[in-house]
Amino acid sequence: MPTLPPPPPTLASLLVQETQPDILAGWLQLCQTIGLPTTAWLAGDPSRSLGMLEATTLATLETEAVGFISAGFLDAAAQPLPDGSINPWLAILAQQFYGVTVPGATYAETSIVLTNSGGGLYEIASGDLTFSLSVNPGVTYTNTSGGILTGVGSPGASLTVTAIASQAGAASNAGVGEIDTLVTALLGVTCTNPAAATGQNQQDAATTVQQCRNQQSAFSPNGPAGAYSFVALNQSLTGLVDVVKAREYDDSETGDVILYIASASGAASSSDVAAVQAAALKTVTPLCITPTVYSAVPVTQAVSYVLWLYSDVGQTLATITQQIQTALQNMFAARPIGGDLIPGASAGALYQSLIEATIANAYPGYTFRCQVTTPASDVLLTAGQVVQLGTVTPTVNFVPRT
């Protein structure tokens, strides 16, 4: 019986990063082989310390070398770093090799109304004030405009300033009225935000990878469906930064292509729709094809859940609910237009099981039960709908380990 050839190596097996302990062990083995008294080198011995220094330096170089080499491969660059963050090489690869500009995280901004119920007069300059949320004190905002706030009963007793979050990303988002605390004390002055503040996280790796693959579709003269999404999400072609989702539907016998686009807040503006329409017609539409761009229709979905955690989780209720809120926001933001579509299904959906998994995975090892009561079942979506996270109502039960 002939011997089968060995299977080809995988990319992961070739991108092996030597660690500092491995390098040190190899160095000690080499020293022992040439007859050096390695067993006599105790901790602190100059020879062993020299080997430790070399191993540490080489391990650092290994990290840089493997990161650089893996950056040339889309799937490898898409793997998260050990701390769970997005590999920065992915954005470089996407831009340089695929012409895809990856949107970074944005800072949430809003207007804040200051109301003076006392007699003080305050001259406020940009950067003077820090605000926070009583529901999440770790989230802060700083004013970027100023003015004069006069005493109660005067026309200037109310002042509206603009403010920006101290940290980028959705974790600093604030709903209407949630920015309610003045960290910078002004006697007799209260604050509130009449409009929500919304920032975006850095685009997730899966979306970037899909954009890169869609770019390859744009090279075809036959206009495959992925080309339309590539144009819609390519800032250099549309001049837009607000369009973050796109989905095309090519189920037509008359040459019609329907393309839905969405912004971070849900619906796309009419000007964005027109810009994507123009870019698609100019860039990827073959003859005898009629593409039409529509804004996706936002569907706000509230979430209510009951969670059972072991009490040794070591986190406060406020911290737990906020982390789950952030996890849900990220999960909802990653849902495609029309929902997740199972092959063969007639419609996409937001699946209740995905919501439960997102909540449970916020504290793995401590969560032993999660029940989502709203929505009561899978949420079916039509082709042009995009789901948005609504009000989250949590119930958390702490249970001692037995």
Could you give the topology of this structure?
Blueprint (H helix, E strand, L loop, with lengths): L10 H4 L5 H14 L12 H25 L3 H4 L10 H11 L10 E8 L5 E3 L5 E4 L2 E8 L3 E3 L8 E8 L13 E4 L6 E4 L12 H13 L7 H8 L2 H4 L4 E7 L6 E8 L6 H14 L6 E6 L1 E14 L6 H17 L14 E3 L1 H9 L6 E8 L4 E3 L3 E15 L3
Parallel strand pairs: 10-11, 12-16
Antiparallel strand pairs: 1-6, 1-8, 2-5, 3-4, 3-7, 4-6, 9-10, 12-14, 13-15
The beta-strand count equals: 16
Strand content: 25-35%
Low-confidence stretches: none
Helix count, per DSSP?
Answer: 11
Strand order of the largest sheet: 7-3-4-6-1-8
Derived from helix and strand composition plus strand pairing, the structural class reads: alpha+beta
What is the element string, with H for helices and E for strands? HHHHHEEEEEEEEHHHEEHEEHEHEEE
Shape: globular
Work out the helicity level. 25-40%
Radius of gyration: 27 Å
Report, as a whole number of angstroms, the end-to-end distance.
Answer: 57 Å
Main beta sheet: strand number and arrangement?
6 strands, antiparallel
Tell me, rounded to a whole number, the average pLDDT: 88
- Structurally, the number of domains stands at 4
Describe what this molecule looks like in 3D.
There is one protein chain. This protein has four domains: 11-98, no CATH class; 109-192, no CATH class; 218-295; 298-399, no CATH class. The chain contains eleven helices and 16 strands. It has helices at 11-14, 20-33, 46-70, 74-77, 88-98, 205-217, 225-232, 235-238, 270-283, 317-333, 352-360; strands at 109-116, 122-124, 130-133, 136-143, 147-149, 158-165, 179-182, 189-192, 243-249, 256-263, 290-295, 297-310, 348-350, 367-374, 379-381, 385-399. The strands form five sheets. A six-stranded antiparallel sheet has the order 7-3-4-6-1-8. Strands 9-10-11 form a three-stranded mixed sheet, with helices on one face. A three-stranded mixed sheet has the order 14-12-16, with helices on one face. The termini are far apart. The mean pLDDT is 88.
